[in-house]
Amino acid sequence: MKRNLALIVDDEKNIRMTLGQAFEALELETETAMNGEEALQKIRDAEFSIVLLDLKMPGMDGMEVLRRLRLTRPEIKVIIITAYGSVDSAVEAMKLGAVDFLQKPFSPQEVRELVRSVLDRDKLDEAKAQDYASLMELGKRYISEGRCAAAVPLFERAVALDTARPGAYNLLGAAAEILGDSLQAQKYYRAALAVEPAYQPALKNLERSVRLKREGEIVLDDSASGK
Predict the structure, then answer these.
(1) How many CB atoms lie within 10 A of CB 210?
(2) In the chain, what is the straight-line distance between the N-terminal and C-terminal CA atoms, in Å?
């Protein structure tokens, strides 16, 4: 029987321990790595279902690990661990299929909920995705699979179901950025802010995209916004 394995990659021992404890309530076995080189070796030696990956590590950073991982094991789901208020190189990370972010500091409950939602996306298909939440999750799965264009109509359907929620507009903006249309992305971010003027993910994304920075913070939901 195939084991469900999770790999935690972080140079901070306390983070590895906290995440390991959070995983105890899930049906996942856990291994840890303290740097990128150790992580890649473990990925070569075992079949992991999901990797929680810190971007900021000495030596080989998380972005390089993600690039190599996508070349050799593209099926592995990746959650990026980020510092408070910052998702460095996130547009590039999303292009490589990392669509979920866990912001420090986090609670065990946040970890478990995010991991469950990421793993449960495999059960979704377009026939089953009829409500707002399911459409959003399936759209994120498509982005993680490199099918960003296919995610767009799902987020559009989510908007049609509930025009009063800013999240789908914000994800449409993120998708537009990945697809190279920054002007359309800004329109979607402004649409999110028209619905909820204080919505931090769209505020941050609009500010960054207007500055036309090549790299910066792209925020998908409240969990990575510091809200």
Answers:
(1) 11
(2) 41
